[in-house]
Automatic annotation (TrEMBL):
It comes from Aegithalos caudatus. GO terms for molecular function: L-amino acid transmembrane transporter activity; neutral L-amino acid transmembrane transporter activity. This is AAA1 protein. PANTHER family: AMINO ACID TRANSPORTER (PTHR11785), ASC-TYPE AMINO ACID TRANSPORTER 1 (PTHR11785:SF73). Keywords: Membrane, Transmembrane, Transmembrane helix. The chain crosses the membrane at residues 16-39, 51-73, 79-98. It comes from the Eukaryota. The lineage of its organism: Eukaryota, Metazoa, Chordata, Craniata, Vertebrata.
Length: 133
């Protein structure tokens, strides 16, 4: 979010759309790869929708072509898109991977989460809020 705000202040909307479209296509391909891996490693788990593997493999072939073409034609835009994705790595390690955090860090993360939920009008699925629990 911070990287997006900085890009919006410095660049134009067209550039931001290019960054985000590369990120979206990258994430779509990784999702399809995950689908194929799960179908291969865990074939017995329940799937509400099951398609022939030829469809995701065909999609991946086109995806790889488009991604390689994007990397070739606009390497700077793709590089900035990758940097935007990588800005989430420290957030992951701070919020998810680091299990035994000090209480002050937990309180900070909880307050930032609550602030973000209030800003975006997010409602808890249980019907309550964090303060009630």
């Amino acid at each position: 979010c911070l990287a997006t705000l900085i890009i919006m202040l410095v660049g134009d909307t067209y550039t931001l759309i290019n960054y985000v479209s590369f990120i979206n296509y990258l994430c779509y391909g990784v999702t399809i790869i995950g689908l194929i891996v799960l179908r291969w490693k865990k074939p017995k788990i329940f799937r509400p929708i099951k398609v022939n593997l030829l469809i995701p493999i065909t999609y991946l072939a086109f995806w790889a072509f488009l991604l390689i073409f994007s990397l070739y034609s606009e390497p700077i835009v793709c590089g900035v898109g990758l940097i935007i994705i990588l800005t989430g790595v420290p957030v992951f390690f701070l919020g998810v991977y680091w299990r035994n955090k000090p209480k002050c860090v937990n309180r900070l993360i909880e307050s930032m989460t609550c602030w973000g939920q209030k800003l975006c009008f997010v409602v808890y699925p249980q019907g309550g809020s964090a303060e009630e629990e």
